[in-house]
Amino acid sequence: MKKTKISCALCAILFFLSLSLEAQSIERKVLTWEQRSVNIGAVLEEKGEVETEFFGVNLNQDSLWITDVFAECGCTTVDFTKDTLLQDKIASIKVKFNPDHRGGDFAKQIIVRTNHDIYGDTLILEGTNIPFPEDLKTAYPYRKGDLGFRLSAINMGEVISNEPKLKYVEVFNFGTDTLSLYGEQEGLQEYLFASLEPEILSPGQRGLLLLTYDGAKKNDLGYFEENISLKLQDDTEIDLKLMAVVFEFFQPVPKSMEKIVPRIGLSEIDVDLREVASTRKVSKNIVITNMGEENLVIRKIATNCDCVEVDLSSSEISASQRAELNFTFDPKGRKGIDHKHITIFSNDPINPVRTIVVKSTIK
């Protein structure tokens, strides 16, 4: 009896091992996707379902067909090509997203399996879901003419110089007439582009103001707070406050290049001036060193207060050389614990932005 049980157990083990080895021996052959991630942008709840499409080509010699497609949640439904895909044939995955009351950014996974891929390939559907508010006046309290906004200013956040940043801003037409943007926004800065979706906003309708900020055309770095003016079709203008922080883009640095590229070194990043009389200006030197082999270029030095003045001995620093940054702090009209920031933008691709904190207690 014991021998029979042992034999059965061994057979079972061998059977499952054979299945495991068979699974491991299957070579994964997947579709090559045009895009693995699709961003459908801002989705207004009242607009209903939004549809997009993924395309994949079979670059394998063997024929493929899609066996299963799984969506992460019930808010996403899929339809897919069910035909056999010979080499170089294209498959389609149609995805519909149904917005619900849960607002905010989303990233939904879609798993695609084929006859030669039991593990599944992952696609991502991204976007921002914007539910319809229950109380419109409370949701859009800031008025610019008949247009209602959620906030008094538009914050673009971080803008990287390699790619324009798109911002979706909710607006609501509280007026009795249609609203639309004038075709040519001549008064708008050259690094900004604005459009309205839909192009014509009916009375009592919600829409999106699309603002695009081009960091490369801005040709400057750091934090910016500025006023912009948008002209409407009826020749009225709306003034808006816009905020953004622009950074330079750098490609990732290989390990082998870390000692060659420009590298910024600072003698101090946390400066404590201790007790300072409000009637006396205080100056101090910071040494900037280039620890790389290529020339270090200081792109810009910015402070968060007009009370701090800076002077740099040289904006380009050779390998192993240094420059002196002299700053002067004027505490006039201030009292108590104080913190000021000096931000240095350079061509160091690993640490392109360095901040010096200047602390003091003003008497």
TrEMBL record:
It holds the Pfam family DUF1573. Residues 1-23 form the signal peptide. Keywords: Signal. It comes from the Bacteria. This is Uncharacterized protein DUF1573. It comes from Mongoliibacter ruber.
